[in-house]
Design goal:
This protein has 265 residues and is an all-alpha fold. The chain has eleven helices and two strands. The protein is globular.
Length: 265
């Protein structure tokens, strides 16, 4: 079933063109081949191809390495900002598991689940700002269970979770219409906020204001792609791409450090 669904997925070129259209006029359309599946299940567990995720991640890696990354490095050098990454303690779990799930919950889950986002985003933001720990891991687990439960219990009863639909009583027709009109700003402000929170990756107490946006240009572009794939493919696709994207640079750094530590002195 999954293979037949994947066979009908749009080409990467078509997805890329749709991404640029989305930047100018964001909307709620899904890409084709969502199939006759429960919308909640398809949102969390979309039909994906690892090759397509790698194509998007590769594009981001290339643009960031060749264009935006050098700008960020130059801005950091001129402003005195220093990255907090510790080469002797690469944050694998944080970058590949914690950050993709929690950051996507904060910045992108509510893009299509507005009524749930009203309570989910503040709760997830608390976990994000506090960082991984026993209590915050429990909080994130409760957030995920709370967002799943109405749909799973409704599926067991074979009924529609009407009070928990993305645009339910909490989101009246008037609110939905207003939200659609503001969706352009919602998407782009969420991407700017996503980039801004990554300023915490730097020590920049004396960094001039003009340099701060330049430091997080790679995260801004990545946020745009993640917002697009979250809307078009589903929340699970955004989490997966986020994890793949974070894992790539860490893997490169780890390989370089491993080769250096194994080289003759």
């Amino acid at each position: 079933m999954a293979s037949s669904l994947q066979a009908g997925l749009p080409s990467f070129g078509l997805e890329l063109r749709d991404f640029f259209r989305f930047l100018l006029r964001p909307d709620f359309r899904r890409l084709p081949v969502r199939a006759a599946r429960d919308s909640w299940h398809a949102d969390w567990f979309p039909v994906l191809r690892i090759g397509r995720l790698l194509q998007w991640a590769g594009l981001l890696w290339a643009v960031n390495a060749l264009v935006l990354g050098p700008i960020a490095i130059a801005a950091a050098g001129m402003s005195g900002a220093q990255h907090r990454l510790q080469l002797d303690n690469l944050p694998w779990l944080h970058a590949v598991l914690w950050a993709p799930l929690v950051e996507e919950l904060v910045f992108r889950y509510g893009l299509r689940r507005l009524s749930v986002g009203v309570w989910l985003v503040p709760a997830a933001l608390v976990a994000l700002l506090a960082g991984p720990g026993a209590l915050t891991l429990a909080l994130v687990g409760l957030i995920v269970l709370a967002s799943w439960w109405p749909y799973r219990s409704a599926a067991l009863r074979r009924t529609a979770p009407s009070s928990w639909q993305p645009h339910s009583a909490m989101c009246s027709w008037h609110i939905r219409r207003h939200y659609r009109r503001c969706f352009f700003w919602v998407v782009h402000v969420s991407c700017l906020a996503f980039a801004a929170i990554h300023l915490a990756n730097f020590s920049h107490s004396a960094t001039p204001f003009w340099a701060l946006p330049l430091l997080v240009l790679p995260q801004w572009l990545t946020g745009l792609v993640l917002a697009w794939i979250r809307v078009r493919r589903g929340f699970g696709a955004a989490v997966a791409l986020h994890a793949v994207f974070n894992a790539g640079p860490l893997l490169v750094v780890w390989l370089i450090l491993s080769s250096l530590s194994g080289s003759p002195r």
